[in-house]
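Many introductory courses stop at the sequence. We go one step further.
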Amino acid sequence: MSSAAISLPLGRGRAINPWFVAAAVVIPALMGSGDTTIVGVARPYIAGSLSAPSADDEWVMISYLASIAFIFPLTGWLSVYFGRRNYFLASIAIFTIASVLCGLAASLLQLILFRVIQGMACGGLQPSSQAILLDSFPREKQGAAQTLFVIAILVGPIVGPVLGGWLVVNYSWRWIFYINAPVGLVSFLACYVLVEDPVFLRQERREMKNRPLAFDGVGLCLLALVIASWEVMLGKGEEWDWLGDPSWRVQTLLIVFVLALACLLCRELTCANPVINFRVLRERNFAVSCGITFGTLAVLYAASVALPLLLLTCFGYDAYAAGRVLWPAGIFSALTLPLVGRLLGWGIDARWLIALGLLIMAAGNYWMVLMNLYFSPWQAIWPRVVTVVGLSVMFTPLNVAAFLYIPKHLRGAAVGLLALLRSEGGSFGISLVETLLERRGQFHAARIGEFLGPLNPNVSSFLDQTRATFLQQTGDPARSQLMALHALSDLRQQQAVSFAFFDVFWVAAVVSLVLVCLVFLMKRPVAVINP
């Protein structure tokens, strides 16, 4: 079936090729997904420029993901109440304005505030984009449409670090936000011209307007409490020593989170108009896909945060050099995704592709575990390429399998819930990196210190050679001895930190393998797709 044959009638009597619509709506999704990681390599620059503690710069990423997660479940209701086209256009406009305000921020607090606004606007981009694609293409073209959407949400976080690094090094960290202004303007104009609401959604909106306003305010408050307690616990857990916190801040947040989540589940399962429709989880494929999505995004963000930080802290790379190590993975991802769409079109069972992708991800992360402090940039590129190729292999089949058996009237709720779990998986991955680096760094430093006693001949030889070198430079024996000990301490700390980074990749590999087990719980989701 040709693209021309499936041109869709729009609300003003026009017919338009759905691929034009797809090209327009994926640009905002790509812009929003790229902003989740584009600040990763710029965090030290942002903290230094704004005179902020380095321990708090992670909130530039976490606040963005948290606000996205909060708005995701509301997108279905907002799309019906305001009209999906109107809501989508408003999200693009607010996101663009908030991006400019982020670039103008004069303090870390202002930046976090504007990032929250930016994230809430971004929360309307991805679900609306995916829902528009689902409604713009017939069933036999859903694989191709989902492939295009997956390219947007995967390539954005992959390309974000190299673009951010280039802007930071050559201009300023503020330009990682300013660059959204022209892109946002172009995408707003394109979507204004091309996007229209489908007939069933306009009918649903008219019916909603004729009924008394039925908004689940209690559910929204419970959702805000759940996300707030979860995000603060993840962001501050390591700083407050998790469950060992003597002030009981983490323990209190955990209790609030559990109780609020239980109340939210009870409320939404009994409410006629829930803010989050958990009933979609009754469909087994969708429920399993939610679990795999959460774990996969945690692995992706953990690896995407850990690798640039490893290069920045242990190798002395600048932001652009660290980003260049990541960008080849984006090319291979873009090449892999269309191939996966074609395999789905040939009737390949999506479960096998999901399992294969997870195994490839595990292999790529384990490859990084085998590295040391003497690897070259090219040796870091290929494990990253393997990891991202695995993600590209499994993500489109996962999205197709998730929505294949979801009724059309529940698609909005399903898209919002799955997007929520994608965002929260990313937050969990970032928190996992922070915790592992701190805990495992201390562990490895202690273990390495056990072998650095004065009776170790290698230690004595290192100190003698280093002391002699410093003595030639300073002519001060006492100072040379002290400098040699400092050099040994720095070397121990560098090795310990590198081991902690490699532990992050080891955990990511294990999680990827565990997720393979969930695939066997899915029903057979063969998508009937013409390539």
